[in-house]
Every structure is written in C-alpha cells, then in structure tokens.
Amino acid sequence: MGDERPFPSIFSGQLLLAVVFLLTGGAPWAQAAGAPDFKLIPKLQELKDRPPAPDFTLPDAGGRKVSLKDFRGKVVFLNFWASWCESCRDEMPSMERLYREFKGKGLEIVAVNVKDKRRDALAFVEGLKVNYLVLMDPEGEVGLLYGAFGLPATYLIDRKGVALARMWGPADWYSPAARDLIRTLVEQRN
Question: How many CA atoms are closer than 13 Å to the CA of 118, on its beta-carbon side?
C-alpha cells in the first residue's frame, strides 16, 4: 500500500508532451490547424497587413469584360505575365497543372497579360495550351496598380478578396509544397 506514488503518472504525462513536442516540430501551437504556411514556397511573401486586393476590370481573350470581384467566394491566383518573358513561359505549365487539379475545388487562376499586343499574347497561351482565364492589360495599368514591375508576379487572394501573399519571379506551382498551400487555401471557409 505504501508503494503507490503519483510520480509515474505525472512523469508519463510529461513524457507524452515531450514526444508530441518533438513530433510536431517543436511548437504544435505555433501554426493553427489549417492555417496556410506561405514559407513553404521560396520567395513567396506573406502580406502581414492583409489589404483588400484592388479591384479591376479587363477584357478576356474574347473581349468580354471581367472584374476581379466576379471571383468572390473563390481563391484567386492572380498572375502577371508577358509573351516575351522566358520565366513566365517556364512557370505557366505548372500553373496549368495546378488549375486542372483545383479548378472545381474553389481556385480560379487569372493570368493578366501586361503590355503585349493581343495577337502575341494569344499565340503565346495557345502555344502553351493553357485553359485558365487570360485577361489583357495592354497599357499595363493593372500591373502597375499591383506593383508588377518585374515579371512574372503572382498574388494569392482569399475568398473575401483579401490579398494574402505575393511573389516576384517564377515558381513551380505544381510542386508538392505549392499544392499543399493551395489545398489549404481552398479548404478554408473564411
């Protein structure tokens, strides 16, 4: 009767916490469950102030006017590009694969062509066989509004129209890390 002590149960509880701490990377409380981790993508910068994404209206390849606000309720992958941009050409196939995987799950890819002749832009996307939405910004006004001075430039916008992150330069948007990030964003119901 005198051999029963509370020490083993306290010790095993502390041991369990230590194991959980180590298995979850040291701080299980640091990243909320389901919160996007923008650090997964090199060069992707989380926007700490989370501003509303500036609305705009541009024509699509067929001349139909499209506004950013038309996509409220969806996660928007907003990409600025040009036909003369080799890095843009390099990243667009991965954007197409990303689009195919997530288009029915709440993702909209909006690719804004900046300062190109319409025929050059259309030949470029037809050659790459992209199926996501392409808009024309022949004067570069929307690109300027978003600060897309270097191309490609990409913004991730949540379902409410809030700019979450931005990136200048190309990325493999179909990498496991990029797909995990997009999956987290489309699964959020903010």
Answer: 8
Compute the distance between CA of residue 48 and CA of residue 46 in angstroms, rounded to an integer: 6
Largest separation between any pair of C-alpha atoms in the chain: 90
Rounded Cα–Cα distance for residues 156 and 92 (Å): 16
Residue carrying structure tokens 């640091």: 30
Question: At which residue do the structure tokens 């050409």 appear?
Answer: 89
Of 11, 85, 55, 41, the closest CA to residue 146 belongs to: 55
Alpha-carbon distance of 120 to 157, in angstroms, equals: 28
Q: What is the reported pTM?
A: 0.82
In angstroms, the CA 135 to CA 125 distance is 11
Residue 122, φ and ψ in degrees, nearest 5: -65, -40
Query: d(Cα 49, Cα 184) in Å, to the nearest integer?
Result: 20
Residue owning tokens 């006017």: 65
Residues 114-173 pLDDT 10s: 999 999 999 999 999 999 999 999 999 999 999 999 999 999 999 999 999 999 999 999
Q: Identify the CATH class of 36-187.
A: alpha beta
Which of 156, 151, 147 has its CA nearest to residue 168?
A: 151
Q: What does the domain layout of the chain look like in residue ranges?
A: 36-187
